[in-house]
User: What shape does this take?
Amino acid sequence: MIEPWLTFLSVWALTYALVFGSYLAFGWAFTVWARGRGERKIQPRRDGLKRRDAEIRASARSLVVTCACFAGGLTLATYGVRLFDAASLSWWSAPLMFAASVVLFDAWFYAVHRLAHTAPFKRWHLLHHQSVAPTVWSNYSDTAFDAFTQQGYFLAMPLLTPFPVEVFVVHRVFDHFNGMIGHSGYEVAAGPASRAPWPLASVTFHDMHHATFSTNYANHFSFWDRVFGTIHPDYDRRMAVWEAPAAAPAEALRGRSHS
Ligand SMILES: [Zn+2]
Ligand SMILES: [Zn+2]
Assistant: This one.
């Protein structure tokens, strides 16, 4: 019985070192890259970086929970605590299961995130919303409640799906960088796929959630927000503006909905 615990503690410690280490390294690299790219800034009149140190401290705490969820799911599934046998990985099944996991996570995230905005739970979500203009440092700046409900996906799904643990490892790496870029405050994903009728979410999508508080709850896709009517009414238009910056004074159009 001691071996699963040793595995869990080892994976937990290793994951924490890798995630927090790459958070610091990528955050620093992105900050350097972003210098001189002010034209991509989504909220040019707000300085989100003034919260950087507080966000790094909050991330150091909440990542303990995030990494425990991941290590717990991986350890339990590895020791056979799972509903289904793990499906085999092949050139076609691996990307298919990865895509299915991303779609599933988006639905999970939408549900728990909307729950976090309701009266009994809101107080544990407000820390994340202290970042009104999020930056690359904001992704993990949240409470243990946020970390457990959102990242609990990586604890539960290895036990409830036939996806092998490798799928969740790749998905967690993707979620790590996607989450940091998604909070960066710089639009790098503008294009027709990021607005109606396509379902991909851009950086502006979650940035608007921070700026307005009560729209755009999903993570990877705008699908669930469109279905439940929680998408920001100005989202598609603002994405169109990013695609044609020469056609209109972009800063004026961008700033209109949250100034
Ligand atoms: Zn929120
Ligand atoms: Zn956020």
Residues 113, 117, 125, 129, 209 surround zinc ion (ligand 1) (CB under 6 Å). Residues 2-255 form one domain. The chain has a mean pLDDT of 92.
